[in-house]
Each structure stands twice: as structure tokens, then as C-alpha cells.
Amino acid sequence: MAAELQHVKETMAAELRSVKGTMAARIEALEARERTPLALVPTSHEVHLAKLSTYAHSLQDANVLMIKSDLWKLGYLYRQSGAYRAYRKHGELIVERSNGKTMDFYLTPRGQELLVHLHNQGKLTKKKS
């Protein structure tokens, strides 16, 4: 009887350790997701283009007005007659479309990842508090 009771205790202790490990992993995953900028949280499995200015708003403390300038300084955009244009070599990241008067920039999924990466590295201008 004592051996059987000891076996039950050991089994329960092992199950408890397993549950604690699983819960710790879940908590870590939830905390990591919470720390992830909204821009990275997938909303669907569809591939879509996100407008640069709209996407930049989801990056916490990024200065949205300076995004194009930052991308220009980093070599992803160039200036032509005072307007920003996207290099063709970065077409898999940034797509430009004319709206009649100016160019709108859209980010591909890889471009969205790049913008988040640049933000995390501190290469994008931050808002002043």
C-alpha cells in the first residue's frame, strides 16, 4: 500500500511539473504576442498590400511623418523632383502607385516585416514626447 501511494505521488508530481511547464510556455507565448507590434499580428492568411502610412501607425512610438524620409536615408526610396519614389530593386518590399497627383506607397508582407525590423533596431525616427 505504501509503495502504491508513493507511485501515485510521483505520478502526480510528474504531471504537475508537466502542466507547469506547459503553462509557462503558454504565458511566454502570450506575453511575446502582447509585445509584438500590432502590425505583426496576422489577421488572415491572405497576402495583401498595406498602405505605408496606415501600417506605420501600428508601430508604437514611430514618427509617421518621418517614415518616407527614414526609408530614403536607408536607401529604400529616392527623391525625384522633390517627390519620393521607390527603387525597382526593392519591388518585393515596396510598391508605388500613382493616385493622380502623388505616389502612394504600399508594403508587401516582406516590406511589412522589414519596417518592423527597422523599427525594432531603432532605425526609424521616434515620436518626441
TrEMBL record:
Query: Its domain of life?
Result: Bacteria
Q: What protein name does the entry list?
A: Phage antirepressor protein KilAC domain-containing protein
Name its species. Pseudomonas duriflava
